[in-house]
Write a structure and sequence with these properties.
The chain starts with 19 loop residues before the first strand and ends with a helix. About 40% of the residues lie in helices and about 20% in strands. The strands form 8 sheets. The chain has an 8-stranded mixed beta sheet, with no helix packed on it. The protein has a 5-stranded mixed beta sheet with strand order 17-18-19-21-20, with helices on one face. It is globular, with a radius of gyration of 28 Å. It is an alpha+beta fold. The chain binds phenylalanine and zinc ion (ZN).
Length: about 850
């Protein structure tokens, strides 16, 4: 009987800031073709026996380095015999194998899943056991190199109590099952596809399954399963439909077929991220699986569809071709986000999807790129890789792939991706490999384009129209701001879609063309116009840049009404709103009437394309208005935005009322048309509420109570939550009583209150943090309160610093329990440079207070210290 090894502690390595550099990459010295894992499962004690067949991969006689985090080794066996030539270095196990070129290493570890509050490694959620291994969680289960360029075939045997864990799942195929002593049973799973350790997964619990099947393009019958807790089964149908659509779409658009007989998804309540693409066994946050019209909004439904697709698409972009090291993270994430965006566009309205994607990019990625945590999509260094699952790596990464697709065109892009998948199948690849495949497949030189992987910061294009006789030109000056560690930048290759229109009725136009910018200063001929043409630039948002072009409000209004590209129409109206708001905030003359006129004109399309109209009519959010200013004034922004909202609400009262007077589509109707109408009704209600009309709380309450689904119900509740009517309290109470037992819906109850534009929101959030239903153990709950609050600009930046203190208190309380989620709350405090001196001091003081905490995690240490720089 081998002596087990005991876990030393449940927390991660202490915070000694060690910086890892991309340039230091070395190939692994050992490979591990096969791994056999044996789990004796228990909530408070799980015993893991790992057998690794290791093979020397480098000529130098290096010892075998197996990473460990919170594990202890009591005994090591080599080829079946006890081996003494090993030592612990930090948490790692170093085994000296002398001159052996191959060996079978066996190590036992004991872990306590119930004590794993980080939700990384093997942990308990409700009464089930599950794993999360990306990026470096496998080393919390057993000793292993735990780097993505070590790929192995896994055989996994699980034994557990049959009553507690009737369902035992792992990657690949289930090859055998049986009964054991004392009410136990076991299952053996084998995954034929070599994979890195971060894709390992296991689930054990009392689960029910929604079963379906899918026939792949070559005729393989795949069994699909979505596993949830009893009672949740009815809410898995949308996810299942999304999965089947994704499988078909990847065949049709990328020629990629699924490669196992089984595809399982499990939903867990406690999860740090959205979902995880483990081979053949995706593990999801419940919020991206469970949806029905009574409990989920249309946006939630879209979230489910997009994330199910995202994880499924990883089977090729991530699993079959994986990453060589974590600096290459955008190789799988940027590409996969681009793939899921394209899929969702194809499933619904491409224009609306593009607007949503760009709005997210501007809300989450642009600020990151302009702040102390800015990094290239392929970072050069990190201290804690968990901190680099960012909007930059994901969303800007997707924009970079999209630009290549634009430069190549659909057909050549497909040639490039075919080449990439075929050439690197089964390998751990790099971003450079991807670009090379694009170059070869697309027959294009991407030498300069590679700077998108190297340089951080959002490029700014200053545009000016120039005239020589009847010939018009666009002069472009490209600048890229300095970012941490990158003082000077070289010009990027930028695909810019543009068109020009004559507004004088002459009909002259420059039809859409693609200009490829390469120089810091460049002149682009537009053609002949009798008068200054209206410029439509960055159509479809062809590049993730900021456009600086002075256009009169009349020109923007004309484009908002006439541009033939819906995204450009949306942009023109947004720019008009933005110009007006920025002028108002800076005390300059604004052109409110032009905005009201343009919104009114846009509303004429309300019947034909309600989804687009709803997006276009929304005012830019407060943070985005702040981004246009040298110093953000949160109070003035709130005041002026509300004033403009009120003016639009009042001037177009009849139009908004007409939208609400038409009967709402049935909540069970998921068509894009019905979704669009619901969205527009929400926007109409918000405008009416902002206009302060007396009957609006009553109207909102009626919509709230009569709603047959969550989209309308939540929209009405959110509107009421901004005000101080009796209806507000009443609706919040009703909502709470009705949904207190549904965690995902209760999250919304916290969220709408944290979003509120009321003056007492900081106090409300502080109170909600003490609510019996608030808990630090569930990341969704934490995000629903504090994530929403940090996005509420005027509240979070309350001048006395109470909002900052609240968030810092959370970080300090959460860090010992869940450092990954705690670290993700820090970036809002890092934006201090953008605010006035008083706020700057208060924000920095909170970051310093966080850093002064003893025993701070590596995650939080990195984010807080970089935020101060
Ligand atoms: N790889 C996951 C995705 O993008 C995200 C994730 C990262 C999940 C790390 C868990 C931990 O689909
Ligand atoms: Zn992903």
């Amino acid at each position: 009987m081998p002596r087990p090894a005991f876990m030393t502690d449940a927390s991660s390595a202490p915070a000694i800031p060690v910086t890892i550099h991309r340039g230091d990459y070395r190939r692994p010295e050992w490979q591990i073709p096969d791994i056999a894992l044996d789990f004796a499962l228990g909530i408070t004690m799980t015993r893991v026996t790992a057998a690794l067949s290791v093979v020397r991969a480098a000529p130098a006689p290096a010892p075998l380095l197996l990473r460990g985090d919170g594990l202890a080794a009591a005994e090591v066996r080599v080829d079946g015999a006890v081996w003494n030539d090993w030592r612990m270095e930090g948490g790692d196990l170093v085994i000296d194998l002398g001159h052996r070129d191959a060996a079978r290493i066996e190590v036992d570890t004991l872990i306590d899943p119930s004590a794993n509050t980080q939700l990384s490694g093997l942990y308990a959620s409700n009464d089930m056991l599950c794993t999360q291994c990306e990026a470096e969680g496998f080393r919390r289960i057993t000793f292993h190199p735990d780097r993505p360029d070590v790929l192995s075939r896994y055989r996994v045997r699980m034994t557990g109590d049959k009553a507690a864990f009737p369902v035992l799942l792992s990657n690949g195929n289930r090859v055998a099952t049986g009964e054991g002593a004392g009410g136990t049973h076991w299952a053996l799973w084998e995954d034929p596809w070599p994979k890195p350790s971060y894709l390992f997964a296991l689930v054990a619990g009392d689960l029910v399954v929604n079963r379906d099947r899918f026939t792949t393009m070559s005729g393989r019958e795949v069994e699909l399963g979505i596993w949830v807790r009893e009672g949740d089964l009815e809410r898995t149908h949308h996810a299942m439909a999304a999965l089947k659509h994704s499988m078909r779409w990847d065949e049709e658009v990328y020629g990629r077929e699924y490669d196992l007989d089984l595809f399982n998804i499990v939903a867990v309540s406690d999860f740090n991220m959205g979902a995880m693409e483990n081979k053949g066994l995706n593990i999801f946050n419940t919020r991206y699986i469970l949806a029905d019209p009574d409990t989920a909004t249309d946006a939630d439904f879209d979230g489910v569809e997009g994330v199910v697709a995202h994880e499924y698409f990883h089977n090729w972009s991530g699993n079959r071709v994986t990453c060589r090291d974590w600096f290459q993270l955008s190789l799988k994430e940027g590409f996969t986000v681009y793939r899921d965006q394209s899929f969702s566009a194809a499933m619904g309205s491409p224009a609306v999807k593009r607007i949503e994607d760009v709005r997210l990019l501007r809300a989450a990625q642009f600020p990151e790129d302009a702040g102390p945590l800015a990094h290239p999509i392929r970072p050069d260094s990190y201290q804690e890789i968990s901190n680099f699952y960012t909007a930059t790596v994901y969303n800007k990464g997707a924009e970079v792939i999209r630009m290549m697709a634009t430069l190549l065109g659909a057909e050549r892009f497909r040639k490039g991706t075919d080449l990439y998948f075929d050439r690197h199948d089964g390998e751990a690849a790099t971003c450079e490999d991807f670009v090379c495949a694009m170059e070869e497949g697309g027959d294009i030189d991407l030498g300069q384009f590679r700077r998108w992987y190297e340089q951080a910061g959002t490029p700014k294009l200053h545009l000016a129209l120039a005239q020589e006789g009847r010939d018009w030109f666009m002069d472009v000056t490209q600048t890229i701001p300095a970012t941490p560690g990158q003082e000077t930048k070289a010009p990027m290759m930028i695909p810019l879609r543009l068109a020009a229109f004559a507004m004088d009725g002459s009909g002259a136009l420059l039809p859409e063309r693609l200009a490829t910018l390469t120089d810091a200063v460049q002149r682009i001929p537009l053609g002949q116009f009798a008068a200054r043409p209206a410029l439509s630039v960055n159509r479809g948002f062809s590049a993730p840049v900021i456009i600086d072009l002075e256009r009169a409000s009349g020109e923007l209004a004309w484009l908002a009404a006439h541009d033939d590209d819906p995204f450009a129409r949306y942009e023109a109206l947004q720019q008009l709103m933005l110009d007006t708001l920025v002028a108002a905030v800076s005390g300059k003359a604004d052109d409110r009437e032009a905005v009201i006129g343009a919104v009114g004109q846009t509303l004429e399309g309300a019947v034909n394309d309600p989804a687009f109209v709803a997006e276009a009519a929304l005012l830019p959010n407060e943070a985005f208005i702040g981004d246009q200013m040298v110093t953000v004034d949160p109070d003035a922004i709130r005041r002026e935005r509300l004033a403009l909202q009120m003016a639009i609400g009042t001037a177009l009262e009849n139009e908004w009322r007409a939208i609400l007077a038409r009967s709402a589509p049935a909540a069970t109707d998921p068509s894009p048309e019905a979704k669009g109408r619901r969205r527009l009704r929400g926007v109409a209600l918000a405008y009416l509420a902002a206009s302060g009309l007396e009957d609006v709380p009553g109207l909102a309450f009626a919509i709230f109570s009569q709603a047959d689904g969550m989209t309308e119900r939540q929209a009405a509740l959110a509107t009421l939550a901004h005000g101080d009517s009796d209806e507000r309290t009443h609706a919040l109470d009703i909502f709470y009583q009705r949904y207190r037992d549904n965690p995902l819906v209760l999250d919304k109850w916290f969220q709408v209150q944290a979003w509120s534009q009321r003056a007492d929101t900081v106090a409300t959030v502080a109170e909600l943090a003490q609510h019996p239903d608030f808990t630090l153990t569930n990341p969704n709950r934490v995000r629903s309160l504090y994530g929403a609050f940090a996005g509420n600009q005027a509240a979070f930046h309350q001048a006395d610093g109470a909002g900052y203190r609240l968030l810092a208190d959370l970080v300090i309380a959460l860090d010992p329990r869940n450092p990954q989620t705690a670290a993700r709350m820090i970036p809002p405090l890092g934006r201090w440079r953008r605010f006035d001196e008083g706020r700057q001091l208060l924000m920095k003081a909170e970051l310093e207070r966080i850093l002064a905490q003893p025993g701070l995690s590596r995650d939080v240490t990195e984010q807080a210290s970089k935020s101060l720089m």
